[in-house]
Predict the structure.
Amino acid sequence: MSSIDWSTVLPLAFMAIMGLSLLAYVILDGYDLGVGILLPFANDDEKDVMVSSIGPFWDANETWLVLGVGVLLIAFPKAHGLVLSTLYIPVAIMLIGLILRGVAFDFRVKARDTHKATWNAVFAIGSFVSTLAQGWMLGSYITGFSTDMWARFFAAGIAITLPAAYAMLGAGWLLMKTEGALQQKALGWGRVALWPMALMLVGISVTSPLVSHTVFEKWFSLPELFVLLPIPLACVAAFAAIRHVLNTPRIVQAGYSWTVFVGMVLVFVLSFFGLAYSLYPYIVVDQLTIWEAASATESLIVIAIGVGITLPIIVAYTIFMYRVFWGKARELSYGA
């Protein structure tokens, strides 16, 4: 029996860990960014409940971003240098948005009534700005950081439509975590955001093979086409199910308020695996493969020990936190 080729296996394992960490971040921080985007459309009391619904979770959700970027830095230093040097402006904008959210989250609770509206606005602006930056980064990544006009239009298109996808996640979260008038509003917000989100997914699907030769080859070659085909079909089915629930309030009232959020998670997961399949074996499209960008095998073995300790702790803490703070949200309040 032949021995394991660690120089081949370890880069793949770290790529999987990094990708899944970023997927976890997009889903978990995506819903609380979505709640922030929806905040201006609620009244004052509803805003308190909305912020309360994400209060125990939002900062911990960002741990997955730290893990994903950390793995990129130490396991794929060549890719890290290329990615962050190319995207340093949108990365800086995203971090500014996340900082604004963090400051506003705490200050809005302690602020006087005359200042609370300002901090609510800052929280919403920080959420929106962070989402725009993430959309631009995703679009730039898919195009291999190309700077031609079509690539920039593609990145801009994702940037201006990603907020709708996060708003849908936020609406799905609020359907689970709230009740009464706010829950009904969440249904309405979901109906409004659903079609722009669908436009984003269709736009990415149509234009991705046009802006990336690698994606084109994966999508329109046989038998690869038949491997990929179930993903868009499943996304269409999930979209139809979400639309049906949003247009049938009695389903939510019957105790199935989780269906929209789960449907959105399914869409994000399917989209992630479709993207991963389309771009493999590149970590930077048409520039660096996973193995070209990876650290030395000896370094990866040492790194694997640290990740092997850290990752289970993060997973266990995340599960524990959601179990403890699950249930309907109430107005957020701090001690004097």
User: Anything to note?
Assistant: The chain has one domain: 10-324. DSSP finds 16 helices and two strands in the chain.
